[in-house]
Amino acid sequence: MPQEKVIVTAALTGSVHYPSMSPYLPLNPKQIIEDGVRSAEAGAAVLHIHVRNPENGMPTPDLDIFREVLTGIKAKTNAVICLSTGGGMGMSTEQRATPLITFKPEMASLNFGSMNFSVFPGAEKIKEWKYPWERLAMLASEDYIFPNTFKTMREFLSIFAANETKPELELYDLGMVNNVAFMINRGHLKPPVHLQFVTGILGGVPSTVNSLVTLVNACREAIGVDNFTWSAIGSGRYQMPICAVALAMGGSVRVGLEDSLYISKGVLAKSSAEHVEKIIRIMRELSLEPATPEETRKTLRLKGSDKVNF
């Protein structure tokens, strides 16, 4: 489905990056709220939300922390809030689903297949650890499978439908395209669906032009060109190159500290807003404009911020 304007998503903190990697990674609710508001002011129409334990920076499903962040952001910006159901390594399906059930956001992410999800090579680059859990968690990812079975995907989709929350389907590999087509054919998903192509995670597709083109073309064949909207992520140093390719292909983009800690070679970004500003500069060089939150709600057929539970 053609997109008249480019939807820019800012992913603020995630669970892949660790506090020892950057002093600018937002860890407590105040920092996450400030980063979200700054990113929205810079032009992001969607804010993708994970939360962390403010005492040690560990990803957490704590509902009180989620509530503080969600209400704090909503009070200061009209941006669409996209809640994560990916959570963090080791969280149960119930822990991942509870924030969705509790807060009923307009949109939430849904990882659409099981995969090896690994970040352990990054441990070799860190000389000093801020918290003991970081090294253990990073090394443990060598033996971690991120579970998203057909049963749990079906159950998640039922929860999304019951709460009128739009799923943003996260696709890390080509096989996940078939998962989307299967769920549409079974009636568990209704098109048009919204897809997020995630490139560059160890265990998924590499961040290359061919990977992104292959994923988009596979969806056009399996799902139908008019049955989906899409956005792309390039992990790490591939954030801007992959997003630039997505812009040229007619897609939308996601940037932010969840996906890359650096704004340029060797230079740490101080906020996700810097990433938003940079991708919008690139967009405007291509004569493209960012979608507003209300335009995004219309494009993605979202229920509206007045129907959320926060």
Largest sheet properties: 8 strands, parallel, barrel
Q: What Rg is obtained from the alpha carbons, in whole angstroms? A: 18 Å
Task: Give the strand content.
Answer: 15-25%
Helix content range: 25-40%
Shape descriptor? globular
Report the top-level CATH class: Alpha Beta
The CATH superfamily name is: Aldolase class I
> How many runs of DSSP E, i.e. beta strands?
12
Unreliable spans:
none
Individual helix count? 10
Strand order of the largest sheet: 1-2-3-4-7-8-9-10
Could you tell me the mean pLDDT? 96
Describe the structure in your own words.
The structure is a single chain. This protein has one domain: Aldolase class I (TIM Barrel), CATH 3.20.20.70. It has an eight-stranded parallel β-barrel, surrounded by eight helices. The chain is built from ten helices and twelve strands. The longest helix is centred in the first third of the chain and has 14 residues. The model has no long low-confidence stretch (mean pLDDT 96).
